[in-house]
Amino acid sequence: MKAAASIVALCLLPAGNVHSQQSSPEEFGPNPELAAPEEKWLPTLHIATAKGWGAYGAPQGAPGTVVTAVARGLKHPRWLYVLPNGDILVAESDAPVRPDDGTGVKGRISGVVMKRAGAGAKLSANQITLLRDRGDGAVERHIFLQGLNSPIGMALIGGNFYVADSDALLRFPYKTGDTEIRAQSMQVAALPGGTINHHWTKSLIASADGQKLYVGVGSNSNAAENGLAAESERASVWEINAGSGEHRIYASGLRNPVGLAWEPQTGALWVAVNERDEMGDRLPPDYMTGLRAGAFYGWPFSYYGQHIDARVKPQNPDLVATAIAPDYALGAHTASLGLCWSGGSTLPEPFRQGMFVGQHGSWNRKTHSGYKVIFIPFTDGKPSGAPIDVLTGFLSAKDDAQGRPVGVAMDKRGTLLVADDVGDVVWRVSAPNGALH
After folding, report:
1. Which of 77, 65, 116, 94 minimizes the C-alpha distance to 425?
2. Helices (H), 99-198
């Protein structure tokens, strides 16, 4: 570890030498400009050191909005789910124990990097917290579920509450108004886990009829360096029968599919995907796309359609020939994790028809990218414009991370909720007349 730390010190960019939000407009949209790949044995490391907000700090909302804290002092809040009665569920979660992830020099460097960025520094809380608005500006806080294994995804179908742990899809009984679940879980399906479990988060969304559940399963590596056998049924979105637990691969070649959201006009399932690292500052872009059942999106052999990643050997040209380019680029290394549709939004225009995206922020880039929440307008079921900043200011003037946005969700009031896993806060973005004081 000391040797790894020494190597990090050699290749780490000094703090403050470049500032955040340096993504160019050409990195976004349906036809992004793709730079030439760069080859480096040691990656660029430019990490915003996790500092937190202090007692009263907060990010900045877009003009015409107000930002308030729903809850502070949480334990690494990663993901959000709003129950039909308005209760807000917060998955407080960090990486599970993964003894075979982070081996070798690069792996040890990754461990140092993640701790500086505010991830993996503590044992996961492994719980879901319920936040209930009392109506007088105060929020009740209850431990809803405990004893989980790095939970992220949540979904309610009737009287069944589902949780996507890092290695299993679980089901619990739920009644409207419950503030705690003590019942034992029932495993619906095992999910890829194991001792590497490189991309461990498992997001979750239910179909409108409640018959199917969709789970995002990330790859076990950056670019298949652990071998293709370690990637069995990974880098994909699973479709699971909610009753039987039987599954199929709904779409594949998705390096790390995290945020999942339904687009209501077309009924398409959209996903936010983190692309690979160590190919250069502007390559390849993270993206969101409407998934086609049975489609292949390139990973690990190609990126953004059929652009070959020469590091991956052996190649699979027949499969690459089928690779589909995604719908909308979200900038390189932005770590676009959270995704939600703006349904029921009471925010001002233009935040009424489109997708909100939580961009956790870069580490493998000379200039910071991400570290904000953006909005992509939609028309007729497709993205129809440039990204608009919704929530910014997560980086300080010294390039420290006061917070990092992850999961996003719309609450029953039509305001936007944002989980901040470095600030340990859930933020609300609302119109001025909808703000809580």
Report:
1. 77
2. 104-116
Q: Which one-letter DSSP state was computed for residue 227?
A: -
Average per-residue pLDDT in the chain? 92
Domain boundaries of the chain, sorted by first residue: 2-13+38-434
**In this structure, which CATH number among 3.40.50.970, 3.40.630.10, 2.120.10.30, 3.40.50.360 belongs to the domain 2-13+38-434?**
2.120.10.30
pLDDT greater than 60 at residue 121? no
The candidate with the shortest Cα–Cα distance to 347, out of 321, 375, 368, is: 375
> Which residues 6+ apart lie within 8 Å of 417 measured at CB?
70, 80, 82, 88, 408, 409, 410, 411, 426, 427, 428, 429
pLDDT at 408: 98
Q: Say which residue the tokens 């997560």 belong to.
A: 394
Q: pLDDT at position 24, please?
A: 85
pTM score of the predicted model: 0.94
Of the candidates 329, 400, 325, the residue with the CA atom closest to the CA atom of residue 359? 329
